[in-house]
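On clarity, I found the account of how folds are encoded harder to follow than it need be. What matters is that the chain and its backbone geometry are given together, residue for residue. For the editor and my fellow referees, an illustration may be useful. For illustration, here is how one protein appears when written out as sequence plus structure tokens:

___
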Amino acid sequence: MYCRHRTCVIMLTMEEKQFEKEQQDSTEEFKELRGSQNVDVVRPARHKSDCWRWFVSMTLYASALVLGMAISVLGPTLEDLAIIVNKNISNLSYIFVGRSAGYAGGSLLGGILFDVVNPHMLLGLSLFITSSGMFGTPFCKNAWLLTALISSVGVSMGVIDTGGNVLILDTWGEQAGPHLQAFHFSFAAGAFVSPIIAKLLFGHKPGKNVSTDATAMSENSTSTIHFTRSFPTSMWAYVVIGVFILLVSISFFILYFRSSPISNRNKTANGKQVFSKRHNTLIFLLSMFFFFYVGSGVAYGSFIFTYAKDYAGMDQAQAAGLNSLFWGTFAVGRGLAIFIAACLRPGTLILLCLVGTTVSSLLLVIFSRNDPVFWTCSALLGISMSTIFPSGISWVEQYTTVTGRSAAVFVVGAALGEMVLPALVGFLLGHLPLLMYLAFGTSVFTSVLFPVMYKIISRETVPGKSNHGDSEYSQSPQDNTEKSEA
């Protein structure tokens, strides 16, 4: 009896010690697990990633700013460039065509290279080429050499425009909407600042050694300009802008050497990017959409001064003020869109803009000679047109992945519209007032085309993409991806 009792006590004691040991082991495992969870919650690398993304974004904003400055500086300084190359302004206007052609070619080249070359290195090299073109422009004494230089600058600008949009999408993923708006606002701000640098900061004074001798020629009363070697003071604007561009290019080189790009795009389980079955159709239709939208906006901004003066009966000062109002509201609209894009979905914002462009252009057709309507609707048209391009990129990214080649297609579409539609208006402006009808016609066409694109893509379910991105109760891409993998 005693032995049996003692044996039971010993067994109970051993079981208690084993239970205590298991409890202690489980407590230590819980502490380790809790410690690992705390590390995951803190995630220092994530904070570093957020800071890195903001640094990339600020560099992209700076590149858009200097890109806008480089593009818009040519107009205010065209007269001085004509003096340097000993040409009339009308004989030098083909440099705009050369730059637009280079821009379209650069967009295609950038779309191809962006998918195979490090984007930071590609953008840094493109900005370096642009800065070299800015430095060399004031010293070109030959018109064809100047055209070739401006065309090469256009190529690098096309690469920057295509690559910048795609890099923002790669950096921010679904959160790219406000950052795309900020990127395009920076471009508008640069285009606004550049004429101020060229004319107000450096003035409109020819070089000291310039002597102009206007002699009457034939029946058209054109002037021939005789001069010696000169350097008009407005040419210093190219030097200053070139320095800014060079500093931004150095920032991209720093990004290249410091780290590899961070992509926040949704991908499938095997690491491939998600594409819609109707990807090519959607990108082509969006390219057409941008062709008419961008072409109409550039045509309106380019010829509203002439239209207001010749057809609406405004004096020169009023027509210039109306022109400034359109581009000013265009820039303000892009600035406001940075905050609006954080609250509204891209599709909703596009619909609101299309309604604004259609209503304002219709009123301009009906009341084209009514000054209050003219001023009010021009301002409304500028605001409505300002956010469509970046919102369109954000909208299509909800349904398919925008690669470098995809971005190149709709950037080229926008560049072609910028060349074709203003040229059409300029050719017919002396025969009939086409400007308002063009604005209304393109507004109606784009207002019909956008629902067509939405109808095409809304029928398809794309794993990893918010296929009903304009619905308030849509699933997130992460939810769709998890369900498709389950």
Observations:
- The first strand starts at residue 216 and ends at 217.
- Residues 1-10, 29-48, 206-229, 468-486 have pLDDT under 50 and may be disordered.
- The CA atoms of residues 16 and 388 lie 73 Å apart.
- The chain has 17 helices and two strands.
